[in-house]
Amino acid sequence: MAVTRTPLIAGNWKLNLDHLQAIAFVQKLAWSLGDAKHDFAAAEVAVFPPFTDLRSVQTLVSSDKLPIAFGAQDLSEHDSGAYTGEISGAFLAKLECSYVIIGHSERRTLHNETDEVVGAKVQAALRHNLVPIICVGETADDLEKHGPSAVPVAQLRAALAGVTGAADVVVAYEPVWAIGSGQAATPEQAEQVAAALRTVLVETLGEDVAAKTRILYGGSVKAANIAGFMREPNVDGALVGGASLDLDEFASIVRFPQHVGL
Ligand code: PEP
After folding, report:
1. Position 2 in a domain
2. Which residues bind substrate (predicted)?
3. Which one of 104, 138, 191, 232 is the catalytic residue?
């Protein structure tokens, strides 16, 4: 029997929205999706606010029982200790985060996160039952020199080194040249790399886990182009940056099953 993967639409807010703005945004998003009779079983929605918003989002989601998941944009590879400014996976788990984004290209380039650090952070997330959203992707230079799949495949292998068994992870394929550029990959490009990444999942985590693991596409996703990605067999959702800050646009992306006839 074919495994069905529930699509995930994840909004990475980056360094935007304070905790009061976060409360208003999440409340309105829930209303908007509720009014539109969004089927959350057909497409899961998750938001990734800055750390300082998480307690407010948790309180709102839990008190109003909103069907919206949330997570952090990063975590420490360490659980506790003398690491000024770091945030432990243990703290995120206490805040009822479901997910944590790891290895976003902005962390890799602006904060010098190596493949080893990304791997250690994946293990830290799994220690605390957080689902890591492991970001991989090639730069325009990598694309020219090595083709589309080589760098994302190598990054995923490194991120999963040391991960065994039935690990619950999500992979986000985000070509760096497509992030924030307005120039998304084509659905065919995304599918080609997603298929290669699924092969890595089969080799590292086994067939059954690979078949259940969601692979997202990220990079200039909008309501106008989500349909093409979601029609691809190995693309199971989207990691959305800029468009996740526009309530109507993000709600429309989440509601892709209603407007793309899937
Ligand atoms: C991102 O930063 O993860 C991202 C996909 O950004 P954007 O949607 O703005 O390209």
Report:
1. no
2. 12-14, 180, 220, 241-242
3. 104
Whether the predicted pLDDT of 128 surpasses 60: yes
- Residues having CB closer than 6 A to ligand 1 are 12, 174, 179-180, 218-221, 239-243
Per the domain annotation, does 175 fall within a domain? yes
Q: How far is CA 170 from the centre of its chain?
A: 7
The residue behind tokens 């400014």 is: 85
Rounded distance, CA 239 to CA 175, Å? 12
The CATH number of whichever domain residue 247 belongs to comes to 3.20.20.70
**pLDDT on residue 2:** 64
* Count of structural domains, the chain: 1
- 174 counts as catalytic: yes
Q: Is the pTM of this model over 0.85?
A: yes
Q: Which atom of ligand 1 is nearest to the CA of 179?
A: 10
- pLDDT confidence of residue 260: 64
Q: Is the pLDDT of residue 238 over 80?
A: yes
Phi/psi of residue 85, nearest 5 degrees: 90, -5
Instruction: Report residue 68 as tokens.
Output: 């919206």
* Residue 169 contacts residue 236 (beta carbons within 8 Å): no
Cα gap 134→158, rounded to integer Å = 11
User: If you take atom 1 of ligand 1, which residue's CA is the nearest one?
Assistant: 241
* Segment 52-109, tens digit of pLDDT: 999 999 999 999 999 999 999 999 999 999 999 999 999 999 999 999 999 999 999 9
Cα-only R_g, the chain: 17
Tell me which residue range forms the domain holding 52.
Answer: 8-260
In Å, how far are 28, 74, 115, 154, 200 from 193, measured between CA atoms?
A: 35, 24, 19, 12, 11
